[in-house]
Specification:
Helix content: 10-25%
GO molecular function, one term: alpha-amylase activity
Pfam families: Alpha-amy_C_pro, Alpha-amylase
Number of helices: 10
Largest sheet: 8 strands, parallel, barrel
Protein name: Alpha-amylase
Radius of gyration: 24 Å
EC number: 3.2.1.1
Number of strands: 27
Strand content: 15-25%
Family: Belongs to the glycosyl hydrolase 13 family.
Length: 501
Amino acid sequence: MKRNHTMMQFFEWHVAADGQHWKRLAEMAPELKASFIDSVWVPPVTKAITPEDTGYGVYDLYDLGEFDQKGAVRTKYGTKQELVEAIAECLKNGIAVYVDLVMNHKAGADETEVFEVIEVDPNDRNKEISAPFEIEGWTKFTFPGRGDEYSSFKWDHTHFNGTDFDAKEGRTGVFRINGENKAWNQNVDDEFGNYDYLMFANIDYSHEDVRREMLDWGKWLVDTLQCSGYRLDAIKHINHEFIKEFAKEMGKKRGEDFYIVGEFWNDNLEACREFLNTVDYQIDLFDVSLHYKLYSASLGGRDFDLTHIFDDTLVQTHPANAVTFVDNHDSQPHEALESWVGDWFKQSAYALILLRRDGYPVVFYGDYYGIGGPVPVDGKKAAIDPLLYTRYHKAYGEQDDYFDHPNTIGWVRRGVEELPGSGCAVIISNGDNGEKRMFVGEERAGEVWEDFTHNREDQVTIGGDGWAVFPVNGGSVSVWALPDEENTDREEAPASGEDAS
């Protein structure tokens, strides 16, 4: 039978810039698989503006850590050879690899050039606040360290439609490049009037040569790395019609199994639906609205009504296209979209994405292994491991929700015949100690279930009618299921080691 799949975002913002990350991935592949992770989303693999850059300040798309450019041969994460070897090691261990693509902008140009722009209001990019004038912009990319290897395409201001720095005057602004067929693209998010422009030199996808080059690069990259899919960065700022074309071309190149998920950072469900319609549902989207619900729940404590936790979320309305997550590199503390789910609710939040029927859940490296940098955060591997185990072994079958109390919710997965002993009962409290009477099936009568999180050490005996009362500690989660002692082919359920409250 088809087992549940789980993705890990295999980086956080402050991963050490020591060039060892691809080696770490290769070494940890067996451990990840043993923890029931069967896909990883890796950070941008392309050369950025410095060896310390996380990868989103992208310079050369064809330099994967092979050429001496921008201060080093390697990227923040290692060399091209180490990357290829890490992906091969993951595939050997049954782990799919999704590579992060940054296609919205380019940074760290090799030369300046003079061209005409119109300055626009940063809060309304459709509003011009200057007459046309000339600036000296960093928009010429010649890649002297790579030359024409892999691609002879050289970028200049005609391939962009906006930039943010005038080297002549030494000042910043949002400058729309002037010229024939130059305008903001209309198939983008409408925040700030038009959100085509995000940062650096903004790639112009109305330019035919640009579209062709980016499609060629996408095909070259997948051939070079033999990866299993892509994560597309910042797609609300990129011509949605191009994203549709890109997804279609990658599918033709690599087959229908080639997986693409997009970062469309918008918690408006109507906007998400319109985007999915535009791209013909060829890609999945991260469930940003659910992330913000989990964040609000962690801030609100007992004042948050848990019965509404899934209202107006992508996983509720478009379950087949929803990639669920608790936190990521942008929402972690001190980063651009900081909205960090509080520690007390973190294990409950992971139960809400890992143990339900719908969505493709992602475990964040920073939650699992911890966050580095100036303000470190300890990892919660011990709290997440029991949930990963339960997801892989237990969380199957019909789902019955008991969302009938604002502070205590629960659900049951009935299990499937193909996996003897599968099925579980999950209960979450954001208030006081609680309990919930739930039906797990008459065939389970007499079974003695335990809490796989070990937040509670008592046991629950299933009644003759298939019902039982399942308890939970205040501000905590318990995951009740039949222990696996008699199933000798299964690993022992790991202990939580920490209380979610």
